[in-house]
Amino acid sequence: MGLEEKLSGDGFITTRVKDLIEYVRKNSIWPMPMGISCCAIEMMAAAGPRSDISRFGSEVFRFSPRQSDVMLVAGTVTYKMAWVVKKIYDQMPDPKYVIAMGVCTCSGGMYRSYPVVQGIDQFLPVDIHVGGCPPRPDNLLNGLMALQEKILSSKKSLVKTDGLTQ
Amino acid sequence: MNEEKINLLKDKLKSFEIEYADATGTPQLVVKKENVVSVGEILKSDEDFKFDMLIDEFGVDKFTKNERFEVIVSLWSEKHKDRIFLKIKLDTKNPVMPTLTGVWKSANFNERETYDMFGIIFEGHPDMRRIYMPENFEYHPLRKDFPLMGIPSSLDLPKK
Fold first, then answer.
1. Which of A60, B69, B101, B133 could bridge across to B95 with cysteines, CB 3.0–4.6 Å?
2. How far apart are CA A48 and CA A40, in angstroms?
3. Residue from the list B146, B151, B158 with its beta carbon closest to the beta carbon of A83
4. Strand partners, B75
5. For position A1, what pLDDT does the model report?
6. Other C-beta atoms within 10 Å of A39: how many?
């Protein structure tokens, strides 16, 4: 559209590597669907035709952690399950992000009792908390857009001193 | 079960010390823990009763000084379409009873859960391990003196 017309004149654009990487990265965050309980149904609805998560470049749900960028933790995390969630998170390649979907993952929610972890930020670095029980697909998409903003305005340098991208 | 059949049951089990009660229409037998396996075998094999299916087996914490724990067994007869409860009262300090897995195999997981949640030990059980909580957990969560929010740092979390 507009891009071809602009490029046809000079043939190049100038930007910073960091900005370019962030720009392309934010529009293709592949989720690892960690659907542990009922929030997973809304996560599936977000991937369905009505909400259509592919508008934001996240339609490729990868069931292998090694091919995904964001972990969607959708459901109640018990103390026993926490080890599994952490193990899968550890297998994801950097850069990786975590969306805590639903109040159970954010704070334990209505499961205020002994076996449920009262917020997965006790053992995972959570980027976005999405509230709701369960959150509507719109709310999840809102969280995804917030994550995209976060990636775009990332303060941390993407290029480490040893030359490897983070 | 009608009156006639309950009398027949009382007659067949007259060699055991059993209290008979009525739990909202279902007969309830309060059995001594020493007799529970023999009573169970009779209930299962006798042609007049044939309680061949163990529906449920669970614990109760009455939180009393004596006989604090109870185990309740729910039985179903597929042949006669009858239901019956067995109740076993257990000691406060040392809640131990013989396992029913020898009579009904399906008691296995129920007894493991009862052990996990109440700390009731089933002697002779083939696999007396916890079923829900992690194996290094030291408490029994459904006991009345266990706090709802658990005991801090009794369950491990992965490092951040």
1. B69
2. 12
3. B158
4. B54, B84
5. 53
6. 28
Under an 8 A CB cutoff, do B146 and A114 touch? yes
**Residue A71 pLDDT class (50, 70, 90 cuts):** very high
Q: How many structural domains does chain B have?
A: 1
User: For the whole model, what pTM was predicted?
Assistant: 0.81
Instruction: Give the pLDDT confidence score for residue A163 in this predicted structure.
Output: 42
Residue A160 contacts by C-beta under 8 Å, 6 or more apart in sequence? A166
Characterize the bridge pairing of strands B18-23 and B26-31.
Answer: antiparallel
Tokens encoding A160 = 């480490």
- Name the nearest CA neighbour of A134 among A25, A57, A41, A48: A41
User: B interface mutation test: which of A79, A113, A121, A124 has the most B CBs within 10 A?
Assistant: A79
- pLDDT exceeds cutoff 70 at A159: no
Could A113 and B150 be called an inter-chain contact, meaning their C-beta atoms sit closer than 8 Å? Answer: yes
- Cα A90 from Cα A23, distance rounded (Å): 25
Query: What angle separates helix A137-152 from helix A17-26, to the nearest 10 degrees?
Result: 170
Q: Per the domain annotation, does B140 fall within a domain?
A: no
Contacts of A117 in chain B (CB under 8 A): 157
Tell me the CA distances in angstroms from B117 to A159, B9, B137, B147, one per residue in order.
Answer: 52, 33, 11, 13
Asked if the structure places residue B150 within a domain, the reply is no
Q: Tell me what pLDDT residue A162 has.
A: 43
Does B17 map to a domain? yes
Question: B90 pLDDT exceeds 60?
Answer: yes
